[in-house]
Amino acid sequence: LHEKMYHDKVLSEDVEIITVAGNISWKKDEAQNFGAIVHAHGTFGGPECQVFGGHVKQMFVSVTCEVSVILINGEGSAERKFEDWCGLALLS
């Protein structure tokens, strides 16, 4: 948090998807256009029964991956706004 950055780790070996969960929200760019933001956390299993987890920035599926998207209707919006104190675009 004090660095205001993520520390990326790339898994290059084949792993099994245990779970991926998160949300899809909207964020304005410099031109005030909205774009979709996917915020996902994942848990993956390795060949020796080890488990890896954290934020998922990019994922390539070799065989199959089943995805469900649940729409939540109601008050408010799923818009992200930049917060200087943490350096992140948080849900408003």
Order of helices and strands: EEEEE
Give the strand order, joined by hyphens, for the main sheet.
3-2-1-4-5
**Low-pLDDT residue intervals, each spanning 5 or more residues:** none
Kindly report the average pLDDT value: 86
Structural class: mainly beta
End-to-end span in angstroms? 19 Å
Number of helices: 0
Approximate helicity band: under 10%
Beta-strand share of residues: 35-45%
Radius of gyration, in angstroms, nearest whole number: 16 Å
Mass-distribution shape: globular
Tell me the number of strands: 5
The biggest beta sheet is recorded as:
5 strands, mixed
Describe the fold and architecture.
Helices cover 0% and strands 43% of the residues. The chain is globular and about 45 Å long. The chain is mainly β and 92 residues long. Strand 2 and strand 3 form a beta hairpin. Strands 3-2-1-4-5 form a five-stranded mixed β-sheet, with no helix packed on it. The model has no long low-confidence stretch (mean pLDDT 86). The protein is built from no helices and five strands. The protein has strands spanning 16-28, 34-45, 51-56, 79-83, 88-91.
